Amino acid sequence: MRVLIGYAGVHGSTRGVAERVAATFTARGFQAEVTELAAGADAAPDHDAYVLGSAIHNGRWLPEAAEYLRRYTPELARQPLWLYSVGLARVLGEWFEKHSQNPEPLSSLCDLLAPVDHHLFAGAFERDHTSWAGHVVFRTLGGRYGDHRDWREIDAWATGIAHRLLPVPLKKEHHRSGLTQDR
Ligand SMILES: Cc1cc2nc3c(=O)[nH]c(=O)nc-3n(C[C@H](O)[C@H](O)[C@H](O)COP(=O)(O)O)c2cc1C
Question: Which of 14, 15, 34, 57 should be mutated for ligand 1, with most atoms under 8 A from CB?
Fold first, then answer.
């Protein structure tokens, strides 16, 4: 089974999540391909399942990831699809977490895409990722710089997906008896 693990990020933490998810899949025998959801990706997705994610910036997915979901909505809607977002809402507290459950474009595409799940992960944030004003706001909100990714949580989520994707044992083919009758 071929699974595409797509990501869009700026400073590497979302890519790290994607690579970790892929490692879980590979260890379970899936063919896991990690790809950056770059603007202008021209090959239409043709995988058996998709795990697609983005860093959250200003309450939304990055434009290239949003564009990918919009462009390939019909293809993605046909296959099992999991979505993940990486941001600091989980670090900042309940209010931010609640308001980041459905960042755009997930809220507007959710009905069409019908993902199995959307998971919000804590990401990484350093002082040099933001302006002085951003720094003041972040610290005023009680934010702490650093890598807040929870690898156990990421592994557990990926393992759960792998279990859902495991091939279902083939049922006995009833039409075989028909073959016998034909003889
Ligand atoms: C300009 C900017 C805006 C951000 N806006 C949000 C936001 O609205 N909500 C959130 O939860 N995290 C926000 N973050 C935090 C990032 O989503 C988080 O640091 C993430 O791990 C970054 O992923 P990356 O390392 O792949 O770029 C923002 C970060 C930057 C640099």
Answer: 57
